[in-house]
Structures are given as C-alpha cells and as structure tokens.
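From the shared-data thread, chain only:
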Amino acid sequence: VIPRFISAANQLVGMKGRLQTCDSAMKDTRTLMECVVSALIGGHRDPHFESLVADMYCNVGGQNDVQNDVQFSLYSMEDISEVLAALGSKNSTEKINTSNEKNVTLTIADLTIELIHKICLWYSADVSMMRSLGFEVSHCA
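Structure, as tokens:
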C-alpha cells in the first residue's frame, strides 16, 4: 500500500497541475509529501490514488448483477517483469511512466509515522484484501 502510494505521488507530482497546490517547487520532500497526503485525505480525486478494492468494484462488481463470476490475479510489483514476459511482452523489464527530467523523487523516508498511519487508514480495504490473499502489507499495523 505504501509503495503504491509513493509511486502514485511521484507520478502526480511530476505532472504539472495535477495536484494544484503540491508541486516539486516546494521547499523539501517531507513538506511535499505532507501536501500530497493532505490532498488525498482532503478529497482530491485522481485515478493514480484509486484504491484497488474500489477499482475492482467499479470494473467488475459495480453492476447490479450479483451473479458475476469474475476471476482476477494480483501480483507483487517485484514479479511484474516475469508476468509481462509470460504474457509475451517484448520490453518486460523496461520501466514505464518514468522521466529523466524529474525535479524530485519522493521515498518512504519522506513519510512520518503519522503520515504512514493516515495512508494505511485511507487504504484499509486494500490492506485487508491483500492480507486475506496472503500478501504481506509492510508499514501498516
């Protein structure tokens, strides 16, 4: 949950205007990360911040038909290159959505324990789902 949030935050900070008040011109990365978490919890909506549970519900469970039998798989991002290669990707190890022109890179070191707690609470449905599927969810109590 935390690595996924940091990835989303990095992508949004790199897109001019996506997080109106939070941009890489802020004085330091901790202040920038506080701004990003405040934007999330304060109601800023962006697909990058979408919960896995909410995303799956919108895509497969949001219909009125309760009889949907949809199967899905979740993979650790550490294994994604292998998954892409198995699906026939020619560039399975190439990173996407990266830029060499980033002014700033946010990391877990930019999060306080309080901010981590807020993120874990915000994504609590994801934490529960991932744990129920056997994934370790580090950083969230």
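The chain has a mean pLDDT of 82.
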